[in-house]
Fold this protein.
Amino acid sequence: MSVLICGSLAFDTISNFAGRFAQQILPEHVHILNVSFLVPTMRREFGGCAGNIAYSLHLLGGTPLVMGAVGSDSEPYLARLRGWGLETSQILVRDDTYTAQAMIITDADNNQITAFHPGAMQTAHDLRVPTGRPDITLGIIAPDGREAMRSHAEQMAAAGIPFVFDPGQNLPLFDGTELAAFVAQASWVAVNDYEGKMLCERMGTSLEALSRRPNLRGVIVTLAGQGCELWQQGQRQHVPGVAAAAVLDPTGCGDAFRGALLHGLSLGWDLPRCVALGNQVGALKIAQHGCQNHQIPAALIAAA
């Protein structure tokens, strides 16, 4: 069975700053902010939320169906997806623009500053959720073009496809009414702790109340190395984190978690088991540079 992943496909340019942003940015002078960070290392990686999620889901043995827009420079990415054996029929190729680009600087405390050029992603709303595909049994609305997120959520709901609403860094683009519409259509909500606070603030609710909504099967709040909170029908459960072998690059850890979450959901697992696998895969990801370079041991897959 296929998992429809609606979200961005991007190239990531990742660099590391050996110092701390907090020592370079003076809060009392942000109105005249002018800073420069020396970044002696730089890598170009495959990224974007949809691509990252699909990578971990594929490693776990799932069948991702990626839906997103790319530009004239996209052939290496498309070849990569096809090399995994994935279908690319739901990827729109625009020859008049670039694939989305993320430029990420990570400091010594794993804080990040990101500049993002959306490129072709801004036209992702031209894609429509496929109908008449009984193989698509699950989906996710991940960060993408604003209109694409809205329209694809509506189309997934209309098609009867249960999906995870994962607003990520795009959450600030939506007001409380718009976020409530997403939540009303979703079956699960997945956010980090900061996003969870913003979501509740904008909707005028709490995580406990949110999880009691009859359409929601769970609200997942990731807590980085501390694991995550799982809310179901007003009840909170803490799922402990997993110690990473090394902490090298936090970029894409949330996407790796979501790939594992979708794998478990597609197999009909209960939510705590899905989340526990997500914590394990997130720990594997943070020990590797880049969003699509970690491997998942066969023993972990078998034991999950």
Remarks:
- The chain has one domain: 2-24+41-303.
